[in-house]
Amino acid sequence: MDGKTQNQMAWLFVLPVVVLVAFNAIIPLMAVVNYSVQETFGNNMFFFEGVKWFEQVLNSDRFHASLGRQLVFSGTILAIEVPLGVAIALAMPRRGAWVSVCLVLMALPLLIPWNVVGAMWNIFALPDIGMLGRLLNDLGFNYNYTQQPLSAWATLIAMDVWHWTSLVVLLAYAGLSAIPDAYYQAAKIDGASSWAVFRYIQLPKMKRVLTIAVLLRLMDSFNIHTEPFVLTGGGPGNATTLLSIDLVKIALGQFDLGPAAAMSIIYFLIILLLSWIFYAVMTRDEEA
Amino acid sequence: MRKLGWLIPALYILFLLLPIYWLVSMSFKTTNEILGAFTLWPKKFTLENYQKIFTDPTWYNGYLNSLIYVLINTAISVVVALPAAYAFSRYRFLGDKHLFFWLLTNRMAPAAVFALPFFQLYSAIGLFDTHIAVALAHCLFNIPLAVWILEGFMSSVPKQLDETAYLDGYGFCRFFLKIFLPTIAAGIGVAAFFCFMFSWVELLLAKTLTSVAAKPIAATMTRTASSSGYELGLLAAAGTLTIIPGAFVIYFVRNYIAKGFALGRV
Questions:
Q1: I need a surface site. Which of A93, B66, B187, B200 has the fewest CB within 10 A?
Q2: All structural domains of chain A with their residue ranges
């Protein structure tokens, strides 16, 4: 069929991977499941509570608010980063010395530790002594990300666009490089407009890598914690408290293990569900 | 329109470099200058901040700790991912597709969900505050990624290579080490790059699993920032130094970065 040999011995090859990942994934996950159905009063005494925590979390306004903010955040950054990344990849030179220069400079933000990204933007956007904050205020905008929710959101989104658009660029560029020159020549002979070239040649060829890009950005934007935590700490008030920030507040700040664990599981299931829906929709026509 | 096309990447790169410039320039300023007046470049150029980092063991040990666990993690991830990726690319076996998907789901696991159980798990087995604990914990997301990338590279090598080698009398181990690995050297480089990258930038788990002996540089930064007041210059210098290893690694793999993504399969 696909040229692969049936060989059950292959399990020996994957065994080390399975053992290592399972050790890290299954034991902690079971611990979370345990907490999510129990109540503790300290002293390592646990009482079975059933689905009480799940009901509590699902009905709490606080969870709805964080989830809402999370969806707005993920939706906004996807709507900006994906088209912007594709546009930049299209405008990049195809060959020559500049390609390496572009790729190296663009990959730079991806390799900066996440808390440094947060700290860097924190310094960059300070309203009195930061370059961005000073510039905006001198231009007459009333900008202060530690006081106004709107400023905080704008900074948060600018930071994420700064941090991750390059990933979309790299992926889209890789997809574009894989298109043979013959396709473009054929389009030229047919007198196709540049929009037609994009719509019928470049976009279909990029579909695969863009699927990876959107999946990675969706998963990672849902998991984002360190950068907004360092930038705004979830504030002002709760204005930028995304799901993971709220979760860490509940689990490590208030030590409410039960609700935190139940929230973890709901949170993980939402990511799995969203990724799966997107993946299924994108690969629907390939299966047929 | 065509002629001005270069403007888009150029403006984008400018946007990327501005915050980095601000960080670097701040690292050469004195605390007085930072807090006192707004200056676009250091008026009184100083190396004081860097001097402090290179002479204070709590600072430079942070860098060493980070580098140690990142390198251990990269080595473990790539070494165990190699045979697994070979199995996924060459053989069909019971549950192979499900296993592959399960591996990928671990890439989605929010670190925030796992922080507390990880702390308890590694404390229970006595590895808390060791480099190996962080290296093992980062395997959670790096091994699936390494398997994913390597499988893509391996599948692009024709199966005839394996068969010819066996006909020539090579045993599996000799074939794998002497012929197959050199063929996919680029893939190994890309996989190692991504493992290095994700282990280097991750902080939440690294911070949760360490206290003193293996504390990563990123955690040294956050704790210093909060404990000893508002030393922005020092913070900026430490941040600048964390960019260097990454820039170094990117330079070496610049030709393979784009390729590595393209060959991976969803």
A1: A93
A2: 31-287
Query: How many CB atoms lie under 10 A from the CB of residue B191?
Result: 29
Where are the alpha helices (H) located in chain B, listed in sequence order? 7-27, 31-36, 48-55, 57-90, 96-108, 111-124, 131-155, 160-167, 172-174, 181-183, 185-201, 204-208, 217-227, 232-253, 257-263
* Within a domain: B77: yes
Chain-chain contact of A17 with B80 (C-beta, under 8 angstroms):
yes
> What is the C-alpha separation between B246 and A109, in angstroms, rounded?
9
Closest CA to B111 of A199, A222, A234: A222
- Same-domain status, B135 and B204: yes
Domain A31-287 grouped into CATH 1.10.3210.10: no
**In whole angstroms, what separates CA A100 from the centre of its chain?**
26
State ipTM. Answer: 0.83
Chain B: nearest CA to A215, how far in angstroms? 10
Which residue ranges in chain A fall short of pLDDT 70? 1-3, 40-46, 285-288
A-chain CB neighbours of B96 within 8 Å are 10
pLDDT tens-digit series, residues B150-169:
888 888 888 888 888 888 88
- Is some CB atom of chain A closer than 8 A to the CB atom of B235? yes
Alpha carbon distances (Å) from A233 to A132, A145, B106: 19, 11, 27
